[in-house]
Amino acid sequence: MKSTCLSQPFFAKFEEALANGENTFYVTPRDAASAFHVRL
Fold this sequence. Notes:
Layout: H1 8-19, H2 24-27, H3 29-36
C-alpha cells in the first residue's frame, strides 16, 4: 500500500478516535473505504 494513496484527514480522525476509545472503522466506514480505496 502506498502512503500517497492514503487520506490524511481520515488518519487524523482515526488517531483522535483511538484517543477517545472509539472504533473508527465502525463509526465512519465510509471514511475507511475512502482512505484505503476499497469496498467494505
